[in-house]
Amino acid sequence: MIAPPPSGPVPYAPELALRLLSDMLRIRRMEEKCAQAYGEGRIRGFLHLYIGEEAVAVGALHALEAADNIVATYREHGHALVRGVPMNAIMAEMYGKREGCSRGRGGSMHLFDAATRFYGGNAIVGGGLPVAVGLALAARMQASGRITACFFGEGAMAEGAFHESINLAALWRLPVLFCCENNLYAMGTALDRSESQTDLCVKAASYNVPTRKVDGQDVVAVHEATLQAARTVRAGGGPLFVEYQTYRYRAHSMFDAELYREKREVEEWKTRGPLHSYSARLKAQGLLTEDAFLALDRDAEAEVERAVAYAEAGNLEPVEDLLRDIHTTEATP
Ligand SMILES: Cc1ncc(C[n+]2csc(CCOP(=O)(O)OP(=O)(O)O)c2C)c(N)n1
Ligand SMILES: [Mg+2]
Description:
- With 333 residues, the protein is α/β, with parallel strands linked by helices.
- It is built from 12 helices and 7 strands.
- It has helices at 14-39, 54-61, 77-83, 87-94, 128-141, 160-171, 191-194, 200-205, 219-234, 263-270, 274-284, 290-313, and strands spanning 69-71, 148-153, 176-182, 185-186, 189-190, 211-215, 240-245.
- The radius of gyration is 20 Å and the shape is globular.
- The termini are far apart.
- It binds thiamine diphosphate (TPP) and magnesium ion (MG).
């Protein structure tokens, strides 16, 4: 049985309350457009949509500081956007254009932006975890006070990289916030078909790391839990693990017959949709009218249209540049 949708008062001033909603809308509209462009053959390669999971990236990233480091997975379009990577640069990257945030070399799975300390985007399951631990070690050696938030799916917790990373972070008390996005499936494999221990917090706690479980469909719960967790990590308490319980509404990537779950299960989870439930709460509280919602939605759509125009007008890398940054031009001894 699926819990009822998140409800109750939203404890924010109007500006933040509406910002959380508009960021979830921006992700949703941007990704819907990406799916369409993919169908038309304008975006190619892999494309993993975050639709249904938006409250996690939005709530968590709004709880972090601009100086903090962010590491994400191949399902990272929303994280990049909320972090402040311009939608134009994200869309151009999806299109493989030079104007993209990774100069068209990375595509959907490898969004990267040093200016906002967004360290990817990584096609390898669990690949971001050691990167995050390294960033946290650097931050501590530099006494910079920044923490590193590392997002990964529950599937990554079956990888050796997870165990090595959390062990070292715990042993050295590094400032890492481990953000596990538990959407119940790793491609077509449900958690209980592949793991003997399905309580992810129990698994993480075995490394002597404090843990929290949060309703990942509730942007308020995500924001509050991440604020608290980030405060503990920043204060020198060592790493912390947060499990955000969420659900993806779309296929794993663009090719997936979804034979591993019932349509009814997806429909049930949609009753807990992060956008729908949060806007209902804002309306009940008098912080949002239907007209104001539609205006935010129109703004998001317009931003997406501008980003698509930017990407379409962008340039593909000329063939003669293809080896640049791949082989060094320096003579080897
Ligand atoms: C090391 C490695 N093994 C396998 C894959 C193939 N693969 C891509 S996504 C995925 C599932 C990962 O699931 P999860 O970590 O739960 O993230 P989600 O896709 O649910 O967000 C797998 C097995 C890969 N990319 N890298
Ligand atoms: Mg998963």
